[in-house]
Specification:
The complex is a heterodimer of chains A (about 250) and B (about 220). Chain A is an all-alpha fold and about 250 residues long. Chain A contains nine helices and no strands. Chain A has a domain of about 160 residues. Chain A is globular. Chain A starts with a helix and ends with a helix. The mean pLDDT of chain A is about 85. Chain B is an all-alpha fold and about 220 residues long. Chain B has one domain. Chain B has nine helices and no strands. The relative contact order of chain B is 0.14. Classes of the chains: A mainly alpha (about 250), B mainly alpha (about 220).
Chain lengths: ~250, ~220
């Protein structure tokens, strides 16, 4: 297998030029997908026979919850890559991704508690799933805090990478919390092995939402990485040439 | 330098260094999460304990946030400049405490309804809890500023400051939690609120007298 793409990813210059082409299309495709999925889900999908219209919050809750976990997984991989191969782009990615993941976890928690009030009768329970997502949010905040607090960038990058790798242990706990403990939270909506329990008109818009959340965040993170490259490499001559000749 | 320019500069420093404040709020959150996870997540335990848990977390995070209050000024020499500036150091300390208090109490009051919901605080108690926080935290911050000025020249001051200052926080915490318990069981609570305010006012008198003494002793 040809590994040159992997080595190219480690070069800020190559990434910067690549991201100029791809960030905007991915981002706007994601925005379009979210609009389509949300309108379909919120206005046209049929009502749930038990929960009525309340269930529609699923179209925000499930994508943000899935993304909160996926973002952390990507942080863990990036942290591992940085610690093993010292790749320059990995800390840039961690810096760009951590706040997005924190926002996703916060949206998942808030939308979940808004959903919980009419269906469970309470805003919050100390259930395994909810608590482990709260811990995930705190992990994100810890990564952001350590990057902002340590002035020495080399040390900050390394410390953030270490927390990212260590925190991955929380992900299987979140994933299987609904299986291991008998909780109020329902089991996973999507899985790779079997068809969802919902009818197609209900899960199709949800699938669109999830996929377009991925695209939206991929575009966003590439943009944020561009900014971070500009900040870190502002002395490099290739960057000056690039910015002066054809903008950002 | 005038008092107003000092106040503006302090606000700016607090805003630029907002991570310190965010860390204190995260610490507040984590202390609260410890109780349901470590003791018992059931409503039967949490509902009567909620007010006390929030108060303990608020007191601990106040100490954490105040620990670095004079540290940077001490490290970069601006503390000496303040002492020789000719302005009354007591007023400068009060302004600094005011800025730190405002920075902390606003997010704290915004977070409290969320946490009281998570800890199943009984209905109707939230208003009194917020009132005790509003009346009691000035006392916490003013007393804390004495501790911060005592430990300003130490490298690891946080632990020592906790040891020194937490005992002085006990009265405020005791009266606040008794006010919350009183309202939960339908008893009058205005006297307890008056005592909390009295402690804060006493701290308002004592802190501007004591803090400059410690600061002068630290800067030689």
């Amino acid at each position: 297998m040809n590994w040159s793409w992997f080595h190219k990813l480690g070069s800020p210059k190559w990434f910067f030029q690549w991201s100029k082409k791809w960030a905007a299309p991915i981002f706007w495709l994601g925005v379009l997908g979210i609009i389509v999925g949300m309108i379909w889900g919120l206005a046209f999908a049929p009502k749930d026979y038990l929960q009525g219209n309340v269930f529609r919050i699923i179209y925000l809750h499930v994508p943000s919850a899935i993304l909160a976990e996926s973002c952390y997984l990507s942080l863990g991989i990036a942290g591992f890559v940085f610690l093993v191969w010292q790749m320059k782009m990995a800390p840039v990615f961690i810096k760009a991704m951590a706040p997005i993941g924190a926002v996703m976890a916060a949206i998942a928690l808030f939308s979940g508690s808004i959903w919980g009030k009419p269906t469970w009768g309470t805003w919050w329970v100390w259930d395994a799933r909810l608590t482990s997502v709260l811990v995930l949010f705190m992990l994100y905040m810890g990564i952001i805090a350590i990057q902002n607090t340590l002035d020495d960038r080399v040390l900050a990058d390394k410390a953030a990478a270490v927390i990212c790798v260590v925190g991955v242990i929380n992900l299987p706990i979140i994933k299987y919390s609904v299986v291991w403990w008998n909780t109020l939270h329902q089991p996973a909506t999507f899985s790779f092995t079997k068809k969802p329990d919902m009818p197609e008109v209900m899960w199709m818009p949800l699938l669109i939402c999830v996929v377009s959340f991925y695209l939206f965040i991929a575009g966003l993170v590439v943009w944020r990485m561009q900014t971070e490259i500009l900040r870190r490499e502002h002395r490099a001559s290739w960057l000056k040439k690039e910015v002066v000749s054809d903008g950002i | 330098m005038t008092y107003f320019s000092y106040f503006k500069a302090e606000c700016l420093v607090l805003f630029r260094r907002k991570q310190n404040l965010v860390n204190a709020l995260l610490f507040f959150t984590l202390v609260i999460v410890l109780f349901p996870l470590g003791v018992d997540p059931s409503k039967a335990f949490l509902a009567p304990a909620a007010g006390g848990i929030i108060w303990c977390a608020a007191a601990l995070s106040t100490v954490i946030s105040l620990e670095s209050m004079f540290k940077e000024d001490y490290a970069d020499g601006s503390l000496e400049q303040l002492l020789v500036s000719g302005l009354s150091i007591s007023w400068l300390v009060l302004l600094k405490v005011l800025v730190h208090w405002l920075g902390m109490i606003i997010p704290l009051l915004l977070l409290t309804p969320i946490f009281s919901e998570m800890l199943f605080l009984p209905d109707g108690v939230l208003g009194v809890l917020m009132t005790t926080l509003l009346l009691g935290t000035p006392g916490l911050f003013l007393i804390g500023s004495i501790g911060a000025s005592l430990t300003v020249s130490l490298r690891q001051g946080a632990l020592l400051m906790l040891l020194l200052i937490l005992p002085f926080y006990f009265p405020i915490i005791i009266f606040s939690t008794s006010a919350i318990q009183a309202v939960a069981s339908g008893l009058p609570y205005s006297g307890l609120l008056a005592i909390i305010s009295a402690i804060s006012l006493l701290a308002l008198v004592m802190s501007p007298l004591m803090t400059p003494i410690c600061l002068r002793a630290s800067v030689r």
